[in-house]
Each structure stands twice: as structure tokens, then as C-alpha cells.
Predict the structure of GtrA family protein.
Amino acid sequence: MRQFILYCLCGGLGVSTDYLVFFLSVTAGLWYQGANLLGYLAGTLLSFALNRVLTFGMRDRVAQRLAMFLGVAAIGFGASAALLALLVDVLHFDPRIAKLLTLPMVVVLQFTLNRKLTFNAAQRAAASN
């Protein structure tokens, strides 16, 4: 539970960055899925930098972990894009509201995958042996 709280705090900065970039991009007239990609990438990179050290205490194999984190982010992005399409194109939500509605599900999905794959403590123990 402690990790999840730290993940949410660090990720909160990433999510805030994601949403700010998304909101500004959509407001400026960018297609909502393009804005989603830009925001998602900015938030993901910040989230990785913070969570790697603060939440999961990992300082080893940075490039490998970044690749795994981006892989997990791609899964989260796919879920986000699909939910946005449903909410915006089918249910006719404002994209700025729809994006807010997708965030909780994507946070839980990515925390679970990152905890099990990217920042797995068993992987760290095996690597040190």
C-alpha cells in the first residue's frame, strides 16, 4: 500500500503534466488523440524519473527499466486512447472531461504492470546475485 501511495504522489506530478499538456493542446486546436500522445509522453517521462528512485528505489539498469516503463506506458496509452475514443466519439463527451475520466483506470493499470514488471524487487535481487 505504501508503494501505491508513493506511486500516486509521484505519478500525480506525471499525470498533472500529462493533463496540462493535453488540456493546452486541445484548447489550442490539436486533435484530442494527438494531444493525448503529447501529454502522455511528457507525463510518462517525468513519472519514470520520479518513481524509479522515490517509489521503487531502483538505480540500476536505467535504460532497461526505461524501455520496460515505456512498454507499460504504451499499454496504458492504448487503454487511454480507446477509452477517449469511446467517451469522445461515441458518447460525445468534451475531450478535456473525458481525459479526466480515463486517468484513474490507467493509473491502476500502469501501477500494477510497473510493480510486477519494471520495478520488480525479485528482478533486483536476482541481478545482484
